[in-house]
Amino acid sequence: MKMIVEAALAVGLVSLLAACPPPEETTPDAGSGMVEATFTSLYGDYFGNCKQCHAPGAPGRTSDIETTLDFSSKATAYTTIKTGMAAGLTGNKTMCNGVPFLGTTPAKSLLLAVIDQPTRQAIDLSPQYPGCDIDTITDGTVKVGKQPSTAFLAALKTWITNGALNN
Ligand code: HEC
């Protein structure tokens, strides 16, 4: 008689129940609903949604996208917002090519206009750009799929008013 020995493979599951230290080093504002008037806070909040399209090789990038903005990192986002102007826009949106993302006030800032309907409605750009207005400025909130919080919009306006510092 032949004896068949089956070897049972025991899978040991190791539970790691060690207590994690409190997450003191997490992203500022995560879960708190607070947004500060600093670029770090703004990028950590609603502007974090922009890199799904506005970054080289981003999954949502299309051939008709605005091509200057690069939200890959906080540093590239800051530099392109601060020093750049809209480019690559097609169709009736070409009217906004050449417009700086930041003006001297929130009401003159394309960056705010794309995510805030009242600003878009009353946009007060230099007379150099007569055709960049409510009819030609994209509604970026549709692209993101959600609205920024009131706190975010207030913080962005304060940040612009305070000189749009890299902070
Ligand atoms: C789903 C992809 C997508 C996302 C997400 C997205 N954008 Fe855009 N964005 C575009 C495209 C495409 C255009 C070109 C205009 C158009 O197609 O409406 C554009 C245009 C713009 C323009 C130029 C607008 C104009 O008409 O002058 C700005 C400024 C801009 N986006 C900023 C942002 C910011 C800030 C965010 C994040 C809050 C964002 N976008 C999120 C795809 C996106």
Structure write-up:
With 167 residues, this protein is mainly alpha-helical. Helices cover 25% and strands 0% of the residues. The chain has a domain of 112 residues. The chain contains six helices and no strands. The radius of gyration is 23 Å and the shape is globular. The chain starts with 38 loop residues before the first helix and ends in a 6-residue tail after the last helix. It binds heme C.
Oligomer: single chain
| Overall body shape | globular
Separate helix tally: 6
Provide mean pLDDT, rounded. Answer: 86
Largest sheet: none
Structural class: mainly alpha
Order of helices and strands: HHHHHH
Bound molecules: heme C
User: Care to count the β-strands?
Assistant: 0
Strand-residue proportion: under 5%
Helix content: 25-40%
From the alpha-carbon coordinates, what is the Rg to the nearest angstrom?
23 Å
- Unreliable spans are 1-31
- For the record, give the distance between the C-alpha atoms at the N and C termini, rounded to a whole number: 81 Å
